[in-house]
User: Fold this.
Amino acid sequence: MSSNVLDKLRMWPWLFLALVSTCIIAFVVPYQIGVLVWSHSNLSLGAYLGYWVDRSVFHYCRPPCFATAGVCSQHDSPCIDYCRRNFGLGAGRMSWAWFVSGLLLIAAGIFVCASAFAQLPASAGHYRRDLTRIAQQEMGLAAPVALFAAQIHQESSWRSGAKSTYAERLTQLTPATAKWISEIYPDLRTAAPYSPSWAMRAMVRYDLHILARVNSWRGQDIPECEHLAFTLSGYNGVPGWISRDRRQVEAAAHC
Assistant:
């Protein structure tokens, strides 16, 4: 095998380790594959930009230059003389490189922030105070407000007029569910899913109703941290889904 091939394969242990780690992640936590791909794309982009920044700034000191310098004397190497003559350009080129890198970082930051705000509708801020108040009234100061906000975002993207095949409005309650929950909890009064405030209170109350059924299992079948996951599953479908999920947990003997 030629030395050139051996040189290209000198990093194979790290490549092998990366492939093994990827397989482990795919098997143990497959939902993290997307995060892994995202990290890989960032790393690849950084490597590409870094390569060209280095090539532009230190164009006079390429690897062949140092390879030549290693077998020549300190004084008669044309490559060393060339590098010395061009070292004066390094500071100016470095300043330019830092300037370009700064612009790239600023542009990346603006893009990330814009993407984050684009994913969070402006109407979410309008309902933030009401949702926080309702959640804390129903569950105390430690209420998982962020969880309820994520639930609304998933259900309707914070659109009070959202409609689907079976549900409608901000929290996507079906008309039958809205009527039923107002009957079993009289303090909610008449069902008013078109009212964002009523819809958010009914959503939190319905979540608590389902959570009570999950907690009645006394945590023997599922970990405590998964109780809210079962609650959201019941809200998104029907409470009967909890029994279905419970049977699956019992069959798998773990969550």
